[in-house]
Amino acid sequence: MKTLLLAAAALFTVVVASVEAAGGLPVLGTDPQSIDLRSVPGATPYGNGYAIPLKASRPAWYTDEMGARARKSPGTPQPAPLDAPLPSEVGIRPGSWTIEPYPCTMNFVFAKGSKLGLGTAGHCTDSLGQDVVLLTLAPGGTNPVLIDVGQVVARHDNGVGDDFALVQINPKLYDWVSATTAVIGGPCGTYDGSGPESVWYYGHGLAIGTGGTPRAGLALTWQQDAFGWDGAAIFGDSGSPVRATDLKAAGDLTHLVTDANWLPSFVVGTRIPKILDIARGWQLVSSPLCLQ
Questions:
Q1: DSSP result, 169-182
Q2: Of 197, 196, 201, 199, which Cα lies nearest the Cα of 233?
Q3: What is the domain range of residue 131?
Q4: Fewer CB within 10 Å: C terminus or N terminus of the chain?
Q5: Alpha-carbon distances, residue 217 vs 28, 64, 86, 194, 207 (angstroms)
């Protein structure tokens, strides 16, 4: 991956493969080495290279009929195919898997008064008021279900350092919500330092993140609103929760960057202070395990 991005920053010469997906989005799990990254919808010039959003096209098994059933029954689980990739977390939490509008990853839980919300990358949504469908397990259940978790109430899709969306969770589902990030734990407050800092993240990029996998990296790049690290990321990881060594929330994963000025960092995201600014009055909810 690192060799790819170094070469891309200098020459942007990569093997071009057809992308058989609606709207030109890469198929979930597409190897970045197999396509012309400049052709990915939403790719924008950034510094001396490009910023490539890591949302993917919907998987073939997620049919229009299946999506319609989920949207028509907000707050009520709908059966998912038995061969659907099983997520490794239960309920609604940081690390949950988004299937609609795009395969991405949800990040942290937020609260505003008695309301609860769940974050993702801004480019993983299209508009305010849009429904978001997750693939998860109902608490106490063993089979995967599709659930319309709620609607987008805040959204910025302005590239590196300004990329976050907040979904207000349907109150019917509050019993499903956990603030603890799948596998890697946290968040326990917010990180506002300037590194260097080890970071951990959890996402659903296929092949790397089938069903969700934890990964780690070293974050050497800390700007006011953006941060970057050396690690593994692939299409489907957009929105992933990222935490620092002390379990504090660092931000969300949003892009690969091929700008040589960022090296050795090439996986980047929006920092948590900027996320809270975009969320407009919503506050990060820490894991209850932080008190133990």
A1: EPGGGGGGB--SPT
A2: 201
A3: 64-176
A4: C
A5: 22, 37, 25, 15, 18
* Cα(171)–Cα(75) distance, integer angstroms: 8
In a domain, 165, yes or no: yes
Q: How many domains does the chain have?
A: 1
pLDDT, tens digit, 9 for 90 and up, residues 182-237:
989 999 999 999 989 999 999 998 666 556 889 999 999 999 999 999 999 989 99
Which residue pairs from 17-22 have beta carbons closer than 8 angstroms and sit at least 24 positions apart in sequence?
A: 21/56, 21/57, 22/57, 22/58
Whether the model clears a pTM of 0.90, i.e. scores above it, the answer is no
Does some domain include residue 84? yes
Q: What residues does 144 pair with on adjacent strands? A: 137
Kindly report the length of the chain: 292
